[in-house]
């Protein structure tokens, strides 16, 4: 499976891509993980938000993430891969594309607890106690300014 990564602001995202991004997030977080949550939280359309979209050779969206401009820091979230895309080495390029957007400030995220070690390979460090986001345990993590993977 080849990949094509697109980094898009909301203004540059067409309706079909937005639909496919929201559908993938719903499939992964709500259907697969059984955690209904308010995905449409208003942050997708903010001027500083960037969407990282991974497409396969058939031009289907197989990976997504969003980068939020939180002022003093960047926030990466809503990181998801389609089930058929997992185990193919695509999550690394997806995260790398996110980090390329995040210049000049620390980066934070809330990692699902089992994925904290994976995020650590990108320079993230646990910075607080575990908490529940919906019904899924998460750890707050930070990638300090200047951290290297």
- Tell me the structural class: alpha+beta
The count of DSSP E runs of length 2 or more, i.e. the number of strands, is 8
Count of helical segments? 3
Net shape: globular
Order of helices and strands: EHEEEHEHEEE
Cα-to-Cα separation, first versus last residue: 25 Å
Residue-averaged pLDDT, rounded?
A: 93
How would you describe this structure to a colleague?
There is one protein chain. The chain has 149 residues and is of the alpha+beta class. The chain is 23% helix and 32% strand. It is built from three helices and eight strands, in the order E-H-E-E-E-H-E-H-E-E-E. Strands 1, 2, 3, 4, 5, 6, 7 and 8 form an eight-stranded mixed sheet that branches. A hairpin with a 4-residue loop joins strand 3 (61-69) and strand 4 (74-81). It starts with a strand and ends in a 6-residue tail after the last strand.
Question: How do you describe this structure in short?
Answer:
With 149 residues, the protein is α+β, with helices and mostly antiparallel strands.
